[in-house]
Amino acid sequence: MSSNTPRQPIRDLRFFLTVPHSCSYLEGREATTLFLDPQQSPGVGVYDALTLLGFRRSGHHLYRPHCEGCSACVSVRIPVDDFAPSRTQRKLMHRNADVSEHVRPAVFDAEHYALYAHYIRTRHSDGDMYPPSEDQYRTFLTLDQDYAKLLELRLGDRLLAVSAFDQLEHGLSAIYTFFDPANPFERRSLGTYAVLSLVERARYLGLPYVYLGYWIQQCRKMAYKQSFRPLERLDGRHWRRLILD
After folding, report:
1. In what order do the strands lie in the sheet with 209-215?
2. In 10 A of CB 176, how many CB atoms?
3. Are residues 210 and 151 in contact, defined by beta-carbon separation less than 8 angstroms?
4. What's the whole-number mean pLDDT along residues 146-175?
5. Which of 30, 57, 127, 142 sits at a 20 to 30 Å CA gap from 107?
6. The pLDDT of residue 173 is above 70
7. The domain 77-104+146-241 belongs to what CATH superfamily?
C-alpha cells in the first residue's frame, strides 16, 4: 500500500450491522458484528485506518464486534520493539530452528487446503468451520490483494503450518493459522511459533506491530495470546498496555 496515493476518508464508507446471532466464543451470549459494506472496496490506507480502530479481515470482509452490553472482545497487538520472548518461547524458537519459512501470495493451493481440512476435522470438529470445504477455504483465506500473504512453515518438503496474514503500513495482521496436528509435531507448538515468526518478520520489515485480533479473557482458546508480552489493547480509540495478573 503506497502512502503517496490519496486516502479515501472513512466517513465516506458505508457500514452495516448483522442481526444478533449466537456468540462463537462465550456460551449463551448473542453477538452483533459491524462490517464494511462488501460492495464498497476500501481505498488505499482505509484498511490500515480501520485496523487501528479494531477491525479485522475475513476473506473480503472487514469487521469488528459491536455487541450491545458486552465488551469482552478486546483488540490486541504486540509492540515489536518492546517484545522479549519468554524462556519457554526461546526454547520453542530453538526447537524449530530446522523449520524453513516461505511467504507466498494468498492464492488457493491444494496442499494448503489438504492441511487445512485435516486440521479442521481433527481440532475443530465442534466449531463453525466444520465440515471444511474448498469453497469455504477460498472465501476465508484467499484474496487477490498484494497485502494478503501466506507464511508456510516446512520441515524439509513436509508442510507443517500455514499462517495467513496481511502486511499493512504499521504492522502485520495475523488472520488465521492452521497446522499439522500429528503427535510428533505437538512439542513444536506450531501455532505459537507462527506468531513468533510474524514478530520476527515485522522486525525485519521495520514494522512496529503484530495484530493478533481479538482476545477474550474468559475464553480458554484465546489464552495463548497472553503469553506474548508486552501486549497492547485497544481502549476506545487509544492503544494502551494490557496489564495482566
Report:
1. 100-105, 148-155, 158-168, 171-179, 209-215, 74-79, 232-235, 238-241
2. 15
3. no
4. 97
5. 127
6. yes
7. Gcn5-related N-acetyltransferase (GNAT) (3.40.630.30)
The CA-to-CA distance between both ends of the chain, in Å, stands at 38
Separation between Cα atoms, residue 19 and residue 4, nearest integer Å:
38
The x, y and z cell numbers of residue 195, run together, are: 506468531
Q: Which of 43-47, 53-57, 192-196 has the lowest mean pLDDT?
A: 43-47
Helices (H) and strands (E) in the chain, counts: 5, 14
For residue 79, pLDDT beyond 70? yes
pLDDT at 213: 97
Single out the residue of 213, 208, 210 nearest to residue 198, CA to CA. Answer: 210
Q: In whole numbers, what is the pLDDT of the chain averaged over residues?
A: 93
> What are the residue boundaries of the structural domains of the chain, listed by start?
15-74, 77-104+146-241
